[in-house]
Amino acid sequence: MAKPANFHVVIVGGGATGAALAHDLALRGLRVTLVERGEVTSGTTGRHHGLLHSGGRYAVKDPESARECIEENFILRKIAPGSFELNDGLFVAITEEDEAYLPRFLEGCEACGIPTQVLSREEALRLEPNLNPQVRVAVRVPDGTMDAMRLPLRFLATAKKNGAVVRPYTEVLEVLKRNGTVYGVRVRDHVTGREEDIHADVVVNAAGPWSGKIAAMVGVDVPIRPSPGVLVAVEGRWTNMVINRLHPAGDGDIIVPQRGLSIIGTTSWVVDDPDALDLPEDHVRLMFEKGGEMVPVVGKAPLWAAWSAARPLVGPRQAETGRELSRTFKCFDHADEGVEGFVTITGGKATTARGMAEVTADVVCRKLGLDVPSRTREVVLLPHTAYYRL
Amino acid sequence: MGLKRVFRVFRYKPGWSRPRYETYTLDLPEWATVLEALMRIRRDHAPDLTLRHSCLHGSCGTCGMRINGREALACLVKVQDLPERITVEPLYNLGVVSDLVVDMPAFYEKFEPVGRPLIRRSEYLPQAVPPEGIPHFTRLESCIECGLCVSACPVAATDEAYLGPAALAAAWRVVEEPRDARVWQALALADSPHGCWRCHLALECSEVCPTGVKPGHAIAALRAYLLTSQAVRTASPMGEAS
Ligand SMILES: Cc1cc2nc3c(=O)[nH]c(=O)nc-3n(C[C@H](O)[C@H](O)[C@H](O)COP(=O)(O)OP(=O)(O)OC[C@H]3O[C@@H](n4cnc5c(N)ncnc54)[C@H](O)[C@@H]3O)c2cc1C
Ligand code: SF4
Ligand code: SF4
Ligand code: FES
C-alpha cells in the first residue's frame, strides 16, 4: 500500500483555501509545499468583511451555499476557539417590502438548518440601540466576526507543525508539464532572487481570482471570473452584532463590526485582471447610504478606509454581473481534460475554506491511490501567533 | 489620474552589502494609498519588490513601514496628503528580511509568551443587552501586532532584549482582563530585567500606534500595578491576581 509520506503536493496560493488545504493534507500525512507570491493572505482573503457566515445571506437564493456556511460555521467554532467575535447577527427589516420577505427568509433558513429567532422592534433595539428606529422586525442568526488574516494563519501554523513547508514571496512562473502530466512548478523566490523547480505528484491551483491565470499556464480552462466588490470601514463600532438587511442579497447590505471599526459591504462587478482593481467613488458613497439605512450613525461616521477585493466566482464566462452565479465552490480534476496531476479549487467563502479543502484533499488522495480520511473537523488549530514561531 | 508622485523605495536582499534606494514615478488615482502605490510598483516596475499586506484597512497590521521617516500603516496613508517625493523604508528594530519585509518572528518571539487572548470583552455600547445565551458581547483585541511601536521605541533600538511596547501592552491587557490567561506569567515577563522598568516613558510608541492601544500608558499602568502589588512581585503562581 502506498504511504501518504511518499507523495508531495504543491499548493499554489496562500489564501484561506490554500491554507486550509495545506492543513488537511499535512494532517493526512502527505508532504506539502505551499507557495504564495506575496505575504500569505495578501490576495482576496485578507480583504473580506470578516463575516463568519451563518448562511442566512444565501438561505433563499442559494441553499447549497447556505448549508455549507452553517455547517462550517459550527465546525470553526470548535476547531478555532478564541478566534471569533461570537455576538450573532441580525437580519433587519426596515421597509414594508423587507418585512414581506420574512416568511421566505425563515423558510429558507429552516430548510438549510440555520437557527433563527424572530425579534420585535423593541427587542432588536435593546440588543442594538443604534439600529434604525424604524426597524419593523429582526431575525437573529449565528453570524460572527473573524479576523480575515488570523484565522487562515491558524490553519497555516498547524500545517507547518505537521511538516508542511510554507513559502511566501515565492511566485509560480510556470507549471511544469510533460506528456500531459503536470509534475511540478517553476518558481521565483523573491527574497533570494533564485528560480527553481519544485517537483510534485500533484499541483493544486488555489490561486483564488488568479486561478484562471494559473490554469492558463497548463492550458486548461477554469471558468472563473474575478468579480470585485467595494468595502468601506468607518470609524467607530456602532453595533456589536453583524447587521444584514432582510431582503434578497444586494449591495451594501452587510455591516460587520470588527475591533473599533464597522465594515460595510459590498458591491459586485466583473473584471479581467484581479491585479487592477478600481475603487469606484459611487460604490463608496453607496456603502454609506445603504449602511446608513440599517444603522443611521454608520452612514454619518468618518471614513477610515475603502478598498476592493475580487471574488473568485465560478460560472459561465458570458454572465454579465457576478451576483447570479452560485457562491458554491468548485473542484476541478483536470484529468477530465486529459491533464494528469493538476487540480483546481476555487470559489466558495473564507467561512467554507475547511470544507473546500476536505473535498479537494479527497480528490488528491484518490488520484494518488491513498485511502486516508480527513481529520480537520476535529483537530483544534494552533493559535495564529504560532505561524511566525514555527 | 491626477496624482503624480516620486517614490524612493528602500531595497535590500539577503547577501547585499548595503541597501539601496530605487526611484519610481507614478501617476495615481485620487484615492490611492501608499500601499496601493507600492502594489502598482510591484505590478508594473519591480516584480521582485517584497512587502507585506493583507486587509487594506488597518486591521491586520502587516503593512507597517516608515513613510517619510514616520511609522505608519501604508494602507491608511493617502498619497494625496503627502508631498511630491515620498520615501518608503522598513520598520526599525526588527531586522530587515527583504526590502520592506521585517523579521516578524522576532516580534512574536516576545509577543507570544505573554499569552494574551485575541478575544476580549466589548466595551462598546454598554447599554446594549446581549441576546439570550451570550453572557457579554466580545470583540477582537485592538492591538494588530503591526510593530510600529517597536520601530518608534528608542529603548528597543539600543536593547535587543527589551520586551518592547507591544508585548508589554499585551501583558497589561492580561492583567486588566485575565480571561483564561496566566496573569503571573505576564507579570513575570513585565517585571523581568528587560521588562517595563527599562522604558523611558516618553510615549513615542503611544503616538504612532494606529489603533489607540497606547502602549506607553499601559507600561505606566503595569509599573504602578507591580509597585503596589507585593504578592505578584515574586511572580509565583500563588501570586495570581484575583
Ligand atoms: C468583497 C468581498 C467580500 C467577502 N466577504 C466575505 C466574508 O465576509 N466572509 C467570508 O467567509 N467570505 C467572504 N468573501 C469570500 C472570501 O474572501 C473568498 O472566498 C476567499 O478569501 C478566497 O480565498 P482563496 O484562498 O481561494 O483566494 P485568495 O485569498 O485570493 O488566495 C489566492 C492567492 O494566490 C496567490 N497567487 C496568485 N498568483 C500566484 C502565483 N503565480 N504564484 C503564487 N501565488 C499566487 C495570491 O497572491 C493569493 O494570495 C468575500 C469576498 C469578496 C470579494
Ligand atoms: S514609552 Fe517606553 S516603550 Fe514606549 S517608546 Fe518610549 S521607551 Fe519605548
Ligand atoms: S501596540 Fe499599537 S503600534 Fe504596537 S503592535 Fe499593537 S497595534 Fe501596533
Ligand atoms: S494591509 Fe492590513 S493593516 Fe495595512
Tell me what you see in this structure:
The complex is a heterodimer of chains A (390) and B (242). Chain A is of the alpha+beta class. Chain A has two domains: 179 residues, FAD/NAD(P)-binding domain, CATH 3.50.50; 149 residues, D-Amino Acid Oxidase, Chain A, domain 2 (2-Layer Sandwich). Helix content of chain A is 27%, strand content 28%. In chain A, helix 1 runs parallel beside helix 6, helix 1 packs across helix 10 and helix 2 crosses helix 4. The two termini of chain A are 32 Å apart. Chain B is of the alpha+beta class and 242 residues long. In chain B, the strands form three sheets. In chain B, strands 2-1-5-3-4 form a five-stranded mixed β-sheet. In chain B, strands 6-7 form a two-stranded antiparallel ribbon. The chains are: A alpha+beta (390), B alpha+beta (242). Chains A and B meet through strand 4 and strand 18 of A and helix 2 and strand 9 of B. Bound molecules: flavin-adenine dinucleotide, iron/sulfur cluster (2 copies) and FE2/S2 (inorganic) cluster. One iron/sulfur cluster binds next to helix 3 and helix 5 of chain B. The site of one iron/sulfur cluster (SF4) has 15 residues of chain B, from helix 4, helix 7 and helix 8.
